[in-house]
Structure formats: structure tokens, C-alpha cells
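Hi R.,

As promised on Friday, here is the backbone we talked about, encoded as C-alpha cells. Could you run it through your design pipeline when you get a chance and send me back a sequence?
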């Protein structure tokens, strides 16, 4: 059994035919479908038969189906007979999903049901915009560990004394979209090393995509931050604005296009002190004077995703200021680098790796975000401010 986690809403799951792999029992009407409240008694009985500890209760199943942020699917091996279920938990603040529990009745095992449930859950998780599945499994359950390893999961840590009977848990994870690996994407991954350097980290990724020999390190990250940030005083570190980032890329010989909602420094109205506002305006005026001496094209109309996709397909890398609330839960502007498009998703590198939450870089690169959702994320605040720095190849005369 996969251990219980604390996650919290039910996404709709389609009715799926069970996979027809070797050993699958065809069974009339065998399907994988979304669980319903009518299934709760059968699920609770299945839980009792499959597990000796850490069981889900009737109340837990009802909660997951009505208020939980979860995907709960069942394998209906025969009409009205549930052979197994898979439960995946989501969290709006991460791109990870957690396989919380996977269970198949003993008489239906070795028939491919567990594998079919797992594959269906992975598909649902990817459709929901997550790129990594994690799970916990008892250290003494060699059979389950081997099953998940065959399915592509890798061990990455342990939880001591995790289960009710004090057995340790092995933590495992799998990239659900392996074609989005750091090795395959045209945009290399670099994690920001400070809370306020998301802009430089994304700019570094975009520039290295154009110049593979570029060395990315913390010194370079801080140098770009110094060049691109507004002056800060007693209220904390300044953030990097689009004008400063565009200038930093231009000075290093890259072609640059800049989309901004206005020439005034972004978010200056959020600063209360008039003295600080004046300092920010002076820095912004200096940025504008420098940009006027370059070939940077500045546009004040928001780019469409179709425009950005065309630029990306021509080899340009967009670095986008977003409202990351739906991903991180924090109402703060944040820079991300676009790494790909398809008909449903924009793929981005998230430069911030939340190590304290157990995140690794594997959950931060190539994150799929639905097109409509990302389009909304590109507008920040009530005034719908926007900023996109598009980094092109090295200029011929640079």
C-alpha cells in the first residue's frame, strides 16, 4: 500500500478501457472509471481485505470524492464488481502529484489491473498539469518496490518510522513527461540560488540556450541581478525588472525583443514611500535612456501565446513575468522561462526549487501549464500589467 499523505479536489476522470497488456483478464465490461459515492462501501471492504494498517475509512473515501483535491478511479472487473482502485492526491501549489494508495483484491492480482490503474492515474495526473508522480511504499514490501521500479519509478529517500507499525517508507518518484527532461529540452535548467533572483536565473537559461558554452554559476546570477534590479533600501531586496533584464542580454550580444505594459517601472504604486518611488523612477529613466541607444524593440501590446510560440519555434526564448499564485500560492510577480508548446500546454522552467518541501529539479523543469491558465498568469494585478523578455540568437555585429 502506498502511504497516506496530506493533500487535499476532485478532478473529473474519464471512463477508460483497461489496458490490454500480457496477462490481462478481458472480463465483460472491464473498464477503469471514476469512482462514485455508490462505490464507497465496496472500496472500504476492499481496503479491509488488502491492508492490515493505515486503512482509509468510509468517511475518508466520501471526503475524497466530495471535497478532496484528488483523482479516485476504480477497475470494474465485472459489472458492479470493483477489483481495485487508485488514488492520486494533488496540491495546487506544486507540479507534483502523489500516488496515495493503489490496491487490487487478491483474487484479481497478476492480471495487469495494478499496472492499468497506475498508467491511467499517471495519464490523469499529466492531464491535470503535473509532471512528477511521487509515492511512499513500505521498505519491507520488495514486491511493490519492484513493481514501481518496473514502471519507471526511482528511489530517492526514506521516511523513518512512517507507518502505524513503525516500518520505514521508501520514497519514489517518476517523471511523467520524460521528453521534458533537462537533457532533451532546448532550454537548459538553472535553479535560482536566492529568493530574489528568479529573473536572472531565467535569463541565464535563455542565454545559454542561444550560447551553449555560456557558464552558469552564482557569480553570474548575482552580476545579472545587480545589473537588472531597481535600487532597494530598507524594505528588502529589489526585484529585477524587464528593462534591466533586456539590457543585460543585449550587452552580452543577444538579440532582444521586449513586451511591457508601460514605460514606468512596474509595481511602483505598491511602494508607499515617495522618496523610494522617486529613486525607482530615476533608475527606470536610466534604463529607458540606455535602451534608446540599443536595437531592442519595445512593444506595449501584450503578446499572444500564438506570437510567443512562433518566436519560440524560430529559436527565440521567452522569459515571462507571471502571477504564480496558482502554482506557488504566493501573490508575487515571478519570472519563468518558456521551454515549449503543444496544442494544450505551455511548458516552463520554474527556477525556484522548494528544497524544504522536498522538491528536486525534476519537478521544476518542463512544467506543463494549460494554455488558458498561462495566458491568465501573464497578466499581473488589477491593472493587468505584463512583461516578456524574448531572447534571440547572438547578433552578427555584437
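Update: got your reply. Pasting your designed sequence below so it's all in one thread:
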Amino acid at each position: 500500500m502506498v502511504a497516506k499523505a496530506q493533500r487535499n479536489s476532485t478532478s473529473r476522470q474519464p471512463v477508460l478501457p483497461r489496458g490490454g497488456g500480457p496477462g490481462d483478464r478481458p472480463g465483460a465490461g472491464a473498464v477503469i472509471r471514476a469512482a462514485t459515492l455508490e462505490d464507497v462501501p465496496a472500496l472500504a471492504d476492499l481496503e479491509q481485505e488488502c491492508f492490515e494498517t493505515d486503512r482509509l475509512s468510509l468517511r475518508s473515501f466520501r471526503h475524497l470524492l466530495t471535497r478532496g483535491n484528488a483523482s479516485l478511479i476504480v477497475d470494474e472487473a465485472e459489472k458492479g464488481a470493483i477489483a481495485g482502485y487508485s488514488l492520486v492526491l494533488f496540491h495546487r501549489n506544486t507540479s507534483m502529484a502523489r500516488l496515495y494508495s493503489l490496491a487490487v483484491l487478491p483474487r484479481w492480482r497478476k492480471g495487469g489491473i495494478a499496472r492499468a490503474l497506475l498508467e491511467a492515474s499517471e495519464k490523469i495526473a499529466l492531464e491535470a498539469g503535473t509532471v512528477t508522480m511521487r509515492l511512499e511504499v513500505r521498505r519491507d514490501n520488495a514486491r511493490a518496490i519492484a513493481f514501481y521500479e518496473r514502471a519507471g519509478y526511482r528511489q530517492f529517500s526514506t521516511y523513518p518510522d512512517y507507518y502505524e507499525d513503525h516500518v520505514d517508507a521508501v520514497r519514489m518518484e517518476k517523471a511523467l513527461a520524460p521528453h521534458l527532461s533537462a537533457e532533451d529540452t532546448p532550454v537548459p535548467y538553472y535553479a535560482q540560488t536566492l529568493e530574489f533572483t528568479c529573473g536572472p536565473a531565467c535569463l541565464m537559461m535563455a542565454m545559454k540556450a542561444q550560447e551553449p558554452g555560456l557558464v552558469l554559476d552564482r557569480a553570474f546570477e548575482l552580476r545579472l541581478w545587480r545589473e537588472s534590479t531597481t535600487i532597494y533600501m530598507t524594505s528588502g531586496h529589489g526585484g529585477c525588472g524587464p528593462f534591466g533584464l533586456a539590457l543585460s542580454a543585449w550587452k552580452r550580444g543577444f538579440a532582444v525583443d521586449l513586451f511591457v505594459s508601460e514605460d514606468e517601472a512596474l509595481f511602483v504604486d505598491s511602494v508607499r514611500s515617495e522618496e523610494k518611488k522617486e529613486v525607482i523612477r530615476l533608475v527606470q529613466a536610466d534604463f529607458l535612456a540606455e535602451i534608446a541607444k540599443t536595437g531592442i524593440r519595445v512593444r506595449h501590446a501584450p503578446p499572444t501565446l500564438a506570437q510567443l510560440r512562433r518566436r519560440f519555434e524560430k529559436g527565440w526564448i521567452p522569459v515571462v513575468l507571471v502571477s504564480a499564485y496558482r502554482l506557488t500560492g504566493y501573490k508575487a510577480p515571478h519570472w519563468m522561462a518558456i521551454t515549449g508548446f503543444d496544442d494544450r500546454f505551455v511548458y516552463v522552467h520554474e527556477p525556484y526549487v522548494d528544497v524544504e518541501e522536498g522538491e528536486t529539479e525534476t519537478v521544476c523543469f518542463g512544467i506543463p501549464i494549460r494554455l488558458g491558465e498561462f495566458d491568465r498568469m501573464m497578466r499581473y494585478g488589477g491593472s493587468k500589467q505584463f512583461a516578456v523578455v524574448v531572447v534571440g540568437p547572438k547578433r552578427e555585429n555584437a
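One thing I noticed while checking it: Residues 274-292 form the longest helix (19 residues).

Thanks again,
M.
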